[in-house]
Structures are given as structure tokens and as C-alpha cells.
């Protein structure tokens, strides 16, 4: 696209690509991802799972 517009390789070409990449990253991280990647493994889950009883093995059938 930039080649078709006649933008020569160089500083402005790289700056345009950096801008597009940055906008895509911001769009993914803050709108599509909704905090899952940013929080990572150190974050606490929003839903707590509690174990109410210990499961028992099922009897084998014939």
C-alpha cells in the first residue's frame, strides 16, 4: 500500500509501519483481549472454584 502511494523506503516508511503495528497492538490488547494477556498468570481469576465434596469412583458395570 505504501509502495503504491509512492512512499520511499526510509524513516517515514518505517514510522508508518510502526504506527499501524502500534494501533493494531492497542486494539488487540485493550478491546479484543479485555485484560487477559496484560494480567497474565500473576492475576487472580474472577471466578472462584470451591470443592464441596470428594468424588467417588463409579462402580464398574457388566
| Percentage of residues in helical conformation | 40-55%
Number of helices: 3
For the termini, the CA-CA separation is: 68 Å
Order of helices and strands: HHH
Taken from the alpha-carbon principal axes, the silhouette is elongated
Give Rg in angstroms.
25 Å
Mean pLDDT: 75
Largest sheet: none
Q: Would you report the number of β strands?
A: 0
Give a structural overview:
By secondary structure, the protein is an all-alpha fold. The protein has a domain at 2-36. Helices cover 48% and strands 0% of the residues. It is built from 3 helices and no strands. It has helices spanning 2-5, 11-32, 36-39. The chain starts with a helix and ends in a 23-residue tail after the last helix.
Features:
single chain, 62 residues, mainly alpha, elongated
What is this entry, summarized?
It is built from three helices and no strands.
List the helices and strands and how they pair.
Elements: H1 2-5, H2 11-32, H3 36-39
Amino acid at each position: 500500500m505504501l509502495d503504491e502511494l509512492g512512499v520511499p523506503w526510509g524513516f517515514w516508511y518505517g514510522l508508518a509501519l510502526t504506527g499501524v503495528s502500534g494501533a493494531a497492538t492497542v486494539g488487540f490488547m485493550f478491546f479484543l483481549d479485555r485484560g487477559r494477556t496484560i494480567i497474565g498468570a500473576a492475576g487472580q481469576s474472577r471466578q472462584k472454584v470451591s470443592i464441596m465434596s470428594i468424588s467417588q469412583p463409579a462402580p464398574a458395570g457388566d
